Amino acid sequence: MIPALRISDALRGFVFHELKGPNLACARRGGPSSRGFGSVSFWKDALIQRQDRVTQVWRDGAHLGAVGSARILGGPKAWEIDYLYLCGSNPLLHLQEEIYPALLDNLVQSARERGAERVFLRCSSGSEVAGIAQRAGFFHYFNEVLLEGNAQVEGNALPGAGCGVVEVPGGNDNTDAGIVRDRFPQDTHGLFQLFSAATPQQVRVGLGFTLDQWRDSQESCRGLEWVAAHTDRLTGWAALWAYHGESHCEVMIHPDHPELLPVMVSRVLAQPGPQKWLVPDYQETTRDLLLRKGFRETAEYGISAKTVATQKFSYSMAAVEA
């Protein structure tokens, strides 16, 4: 039986620790996390009634078996499953091939009722969740590697690397590759064009082929962003996000301007302190550069998504609009 999440489930989670495992959904917000079931952050998100989240639970009688929760990303058409707890010690293990995919599928359909067209799931590579998600209709698009290390201001760091405008060295054609400056709000369309040029087609199918689809899949976060501008287009982008006191970094470079990569990476590394970089598997040059700078690989994640084509309703599950 799969009823709605109740306050009593929170009490059971705290008192009886029925779901002892980690969070199997590695959401971008807050960085990759293994927060266990019953964490304050989960209950804060799951039990507060609001329009940007849905939560579901499976119970075998009075016992908890699985819990999942999804939230809006950058816009109402793109959602992410950011909490997923599965009970591996449940005696009814033979039900997992039916119940767990159903839990994911109904999370997707509940999000669909709120306007979602795509629902993302990010999990550790090789996790049991990958197979469960595939049976629920999710399609794997790409992997990301997490690299961790300490950023140090290098002797050849760019002048004024913390802010402002910096000229970029010319490429092989001896013309200016552009300038590096802070990102402006009006750069959104240019960033989408850069994304389209720098990202494989299969990944764009998942993250968004149109400006609206891509924008909905990008979460707005506080941090620092820089772009490299060349004539009338953007040729590079880098960002440093602050998540619960941790710095998470990303970079994107136009394939026609590979000379920008060390420039943009140096801009981010000029911000001292521990950093975590999420590097897609199609950015091998970025990964190699960070490894040479002393960063180390600590995890790998698979990014999957399910596109909602038709709306379904299941009488075996009830969503909590939390």
Shape: globular
As laid out across the biggest beta sheet, the strand order is: 1-2-3-4-12-5-11-10-9-8-7-6
Please count the beta strands (DSSP E, at least 2 residues each).
Answer: 12
Mean pLDDT: 79
Name the CATH class of the largest domain: Alpha Beta
The major pleated sheet works out as: 12 strands, mixed
Q: Give the low-confidence spans.
A: 90-94, 155-175, 310-322
Q: What's the N-to-C terminus distance? A: 20 Å
Q: How many domains, in number, for the residues? A: 2
Order of helices and strands: HHEEEHEHEEEHHHEEEHEHE
Number of helices: 9
Query: Rg from C-alpha positions?
Result: 21 Å
The CATH architecture of the largest domain can be given as 3-Layer(aba) Sandwich
What does this structure look like?
The protein is of the alpha+beta class. It folds into 2 domains: 7-144, 3-Layer(aba) Sandwich (Aminopeptidase); 153-271, Aminopeptidase (3-Layer(aba) Sandwich). Helices cover 27% and strands 31% of the residues. The chain has 9 helices and 12 strands. It has a 12-stranded mixed sheet, with helices on both faces. A hairpin with a 2-residue loop joins β9 and β10. The longest helix has 18 residues, at 96-113. It is globular and about 60 Å long. The chain starts with 6 loop residues before the first helix and ends in a 15-residue tail after the last strand.
